[in-house]
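Quarterly update from the structural biology core.
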Amino acid sequence: MIPLRGLYVITDSHLIPALRFVETVEKAIQGGARVIQYRDKSDNKKQRFQQAQALQHLCQQYQVPLIINDDIDLAQQMSADGIHLGQDDAKLTTVRARLGNNVIIGISCYNQLSLAQDAVAAGATYVAFGRFFQSHTKPNAVSAHLDLLRQARQLFHCPIVAIGGITPHNGKQLITAGADCLAVIQGVFGQANITTAAQRYAQLF
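Predicted structure, tokenized:
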């Protein structure tokens, strides 16, 4: 298992042009992204399959894990390294039974330590907290605080992911508080130079 630490980028179909999808994600990897999450909430199943398949080849080439956001069927079809589940997605135990023991399963825990405790007890690979700062992608998401990360770091041995409005300027305090990964969308894929943007985050580690 590749250790989960460093810049964790999440794809966004609004920020990444479909025709340059793979090369755009490759630029993030070249800049230092250590985990890729494929997230596409559209109903275009054919495009999602094609993009995920292309990303899987790319991630294998660079030995970077590919996580699929909340689509168990797609994760299974791709033999993806992992899946990320939110509060309204399938149950962790169901997903684990279907995808196997070696698959990474990440769980969104928002600002609730109790959700993380339940997730870890059920066998989650990592837990994610946030948003920590004002977010472009989810402006109405609940707020989480640094103390939550500090508490989680004391309680859990699994990787901890921080998300929400993270920049190269505010990211270091999250790592210091206990985050193993900084999950970023806008801060990388919304920038003019994606490789340079990714490098700025990677340097924090």
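The two ends are 20 Å apart (CA to CA).
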